[in-house]
Design a protein that fits this description.
alpha+beta, binds protoporphyrin IX containing FE, globular
Length: 651
């Protein structure tokens, strides 16, 4: 057996020729033998074992040396007097890693690069010189050099429409991720497009590649600028921490815990039903209701109570200290200028609203502290069978589960979270578990309005249940409700995409090999440290090659028998990407599935729903979560106007 390096590495050996022999021998025998023996890359003797061919090409070195001297004398004369640079320069000239060696051409697996090798070496040395003389310029130059050298540079993809925005502007303006779908149709399953300032971004709907990225969460992490924006108010919550800290925090909310919370979901759904009944009654036989904002209030109340035993009372009076603080912090974090998020050095400059945010943060911390204290006291009272007025209920909220798990005697001290980290889960649950579920339920109602037959079929199933307070098991036993929820989360996934950045060089394997711009067949993509990657959620959920030609349509019936190919999608739930997959998948998916079912169960049994505006007027806009907007009134903000008509449930 011969070892294969799965990451770039440096093998420290004494004699250079031995190194080359080792490298060649391992590559020669490796699983990638087809690439390693490709005659276009390695020459006609590719299949022969010839360590000698790894020697530097003297003619090339000579040409390179004179080119370097010329460039530095003419364009960079100020660099040569530097003692350290002279040493580097001398070592470069005598280096064995010069054009002509097999190693230089082999790394990017791109034969056409070899033509430009002299220029590349010169460029690389210019950058190295910058590192010595002008460190900030070096950082920028290095980023662009890495981009230019990266395999992504030659991947197919759309042309950039602006140097500053790349393809980002058109992506943000496009409706519902349609642009990415179009790119995949035009350029193939694995492409590269331009993000801000001409930087490449990797995009693939290749399930093998996505699975590799999601599994390797220590290599593919959330971008620093996104974590910075979120951590301003989430602190060290599970959403923003990485590596071992994340492992330490990751709580598992299993079916047993969610079963206990179902009562809260149903109670809140009934409360919303009553609010809507009043609103409709005040208008006549039918009533116009903007359902998105009401569902958002409902899910806020739910996450408050089920998440950390806190009453927001958003459905009844709307004013609440924690909610106000949270809104200020959320706004201040989403309004951080991009340039400040991208360049850490600029973060010391105060931003508009910083003072307000500081006050809000103090409020948030105080309330989180009180909630944690209450939770600890409640658990203590429960353990000692003490009945106290405030703590007479069994603690079943997510925060208390976390506190209980964290204080368990079986947990070694070094694995325990600090109080501060536990408190950070309060805003984390708010961010992650509030709007996601309300938006998903809104899209479910929309889909049921677009196809009235589906709505009627679902209502028929729900009418057959003889209680208005179903348990989790009753809700989960309703097959058509389950199919409608699945189909909603597939077609209208609230989070349409996510982003990761490689923190190390890596090789991403492809299930479907692709041809790069130079016509080479690639079975894997070499990504460099710092490379950002867009994770497609919606695109994989409605990929025609996986789901069939009707992938874009809302058809709950498809869940009776889905194609076998959907089993390849690396999602944590339902063979779809809506809750992502791998170690960084959503921890609240069971929570939101039952919450959505409780809401649809209660609301469909009470009302018939109809769109309040023509279907064509409704569009989707992404800002973390994909919310509905009216094309005719974008300025009015997110909304979903529906017409509600009360119906009588037989039970
Ligand atoms: C329909 C509802 C929901 C959807 C579609 C959804 C979707 C997602 C997605 C796509 C991610 C991964 C984000 C990324 O890495 O970029 C995520 C993470 C997360 N979700 Fe959810 N979520 C939902 C509901 C909830 C609920 C109700 C909770 C809490 C009670 C929750 C808690 C979390 C947390 C804590 C994370 C971070 C996990 C980590 O980074 O390890 N989510 N969710």
């Amino acid at each position: 057996m011969f070892p294969v390096a799965v990451k770039d590495d440096v093998i420290p050996l004494g004699k250079p020729v031995e190194i080359r022999m080792v490298i060649f021998w391992t590559q020669y025998k490796s699983a990638n033998a087809r690439v390693n023996r490709n005659k276009t890359i390695w020459g006609t003797n590719a299949a022969e074992f010839e360590p000698e061919s790894w020697k530097p090409d003297a003619a090339h070195s000579q040409a390179n040396q004179s080119l370097l001297i010329k460039i530095f004398n003419q364009q960079w004369p100020f660099l040569l007097p530097d003692e350290r640079f002279r040493a580097q320069f001398a070592s470069l000239i005598s280096s064995t890693d010069l054009p002509g060696s097999r190693a230089a051409s082999a790394l990017p697996f791109n034969p056409n690069r070899t033509i430009k090798r002299s220029k590349i070496v010169v460029l690389r040395e210019c950058i190295r010189a910058l590192e010595l003389r002008m460190p900030p310029l070096f950082v920028i130059a290095k980023v662009y050099y890495d981009q230019w050298m990266s395999a992504l540079h030659v991947l197919p993809g759309p042309p950039s429409s602006s140097w500053v925005y790349g393809n980002m502007k058109e992506m943000l303006e496009a409706d519902n991720f349609m642009l990415q779908d179009k790119w995949v149709e035009e350029y193939g399953s694995t492409i590269s497009y331009k993000a801000y300032f001409g930087l490449n971004r990797f995009y693939t709907v290749d399930v093998k590649a996505i699975s590799h990225i999601l599994k390797n969460d220590y290599i593919y992490q959330k971008p620093e600028h996104a974590r910075y924006s979120l951590s301003r108010f989430l602190g060290n919550g599970v959403l923003v921490v990485e590596e071992d800290k994340h492992k330490q925090q990751n709580p598992a909310f299993g079916p047993a815990q969610i079963r206990e919370l179902t009562e809260i979901f149903v109670d809140k759904a009934i409360e919303l039903r009553e609010v809507w009944k009043k609103e409709v009654n005040s208008q006549g036989e039918t009533g116009h209701v903007e359902v998105l904002s009401w569902l958002s209030k409902t899910t806020l109340d739910v996450i408050g109570q089920a998440g950390f035993n806190y009453r927001f009372n958003a459905l009844t009076n709307g004013k609440n200290e924690l909610n106000d603080a949270f809104k200020v912090l959320f706004q201040s974090s989403t309004r951080i200028p991009l340039i400040k998020a991208l360049i850490p050095a600029l973060r010391v400059i105060p931003s508009e609203g910083d003072t307000k945010a500081k006050v809000a943060m103090t409020t948030m911390k105080r309330i989180a502290n009180e909630l944690l204290r209450d939770s600890k006291m409640g658990l203590m009272a429960e353990d000692n069978n003490i009945k106290m007025d405030d703590y007479s209920l069994k603690r079943r909220d997510l925060l208390s589960l976390l506190v209980r798990a964290n204080t368990s005697k079986d947990l070694p001290a070094h694995q325990r979270m600090s109080d501060e980290d536990v408190m950070a889960q309060v805003p984390t649950f708010l961010v992650a578990g509030h709007e996601t579920t309300s938006v998903a339920t809104t899209w479910a109602l929309y889909a049921l309005c677009v196809d009235i037959q589906i709505q009627e079929k679902l209502r028929e199933e729900l009418f057959a249940v003889d209680t208005e307070n179903p348990t989790m098991d009753v809700l989960n036993s309703l097959p058509y409700l389950d199919a409608v929820v699945r189909e909603t989360l597939r077609v209208h996934a609230p989070v349409g995409s996510s982003i990761r950045v490689a923190v190390k060089d890596d090789i991403i394997p492809l299930g479907k090999p692709i041809r790069d711009r130079n016509g080479n067949l690639l079975g894997a993509i070499h990504v460099c440290k710092g490379q950002s990657i867009l994770i497609p959620i919606l695109a994989l959920n409605r990929d025609k090659s996986i789901w069939g030609d009707d992938a874009g349509e809302f058809k709950p019936e498809r869940w009776k028998s889905v194609p076998q190919s959907v089993g390849t999608i690396p999602g944590v739930w339902g063979n779809m990407m809506s809750f992502l997959g791998g170690p960084r998948a959503c921890i609240g998916y069971r929570f939101s599935l039952v919450e959505m079912k409780a809401l649809l169960f209660t609301l469909l049994r009470a009302f018939e729903f109809e769109l309040g505006v023509p279907k064509e007027d409704i569009m989707k806009k992404s800002s973390l979560v994909d919310r509905p907007l009216l094309k005719s009134d974008v300025a009015a903000g997110n909304q979903m106007p529906l017409i509600l008509k009360p119906v009588g449930c037989p039970h």
